[in-house]
């Protein structure tokens, strides 16, 4: 890696970190490219070289936050291990991501921005969804192996995630409830897995 490349990467990282601060503090509409560039100590032109629009920048920081936890969700199905143990690990990774302060704060910003521009919201959700294939891949593999009932794997993932988000995401985003403690996350994951398997276990 050349020094020029390292400098470019550092500038991009500075822009992303500055954008996280600005979007959290001011929301989508009130955050300007000028403010982000000033906080990152780069020129506006440099910012636009990395991110052609404010929408692109916001989508990028959501991806950064997603990827910081997404590794926990990228688990291959293991036929030799109990399906319950694997599901518990997947959900605990999901809960860790949903409980991240930056992720919750920016989710609120994204939702508020989406209310004013449904098209923008759809695009953001689509981009984030590109990173959310780990659980779906796991579900399909478990079905193929016969550990779970055959059927619509995408629907099964939606049902599983709804059980989690109804307790550990939407109340925090929409009503300002506190994040779940580690113990509460563990309890929720176990209860959710047991409820899910009561129907889907083969």
From TrEMBL:
Residues 9-69 form the HTH tetR-type domain. One of its GO terms (molecular function) is transcription cis-regulatory region binding. Residues 32-51 bind DNA. Transmembrane segments: none annotated. Keywords: DNA-binding, Repressor, Transcription, Transcription regulation. InterPro entries: DNA-bd_HTH_TetR-type_CS, Homeodomain-like_sf, HTH-type_TetR-like_transc_reg, HTH_TetR, Tet_transcr_reg_TetR-rel_C_sf, TetR_C_Proteobacteria. SUPFAM superfamilies: Homeodomain-like (SSF46689), Tetracyclin repressor-like, C-terminal domain (SSF48498). The keyword Magnesium does not apply. This is TetR/AcrR family transcriptional regulator.
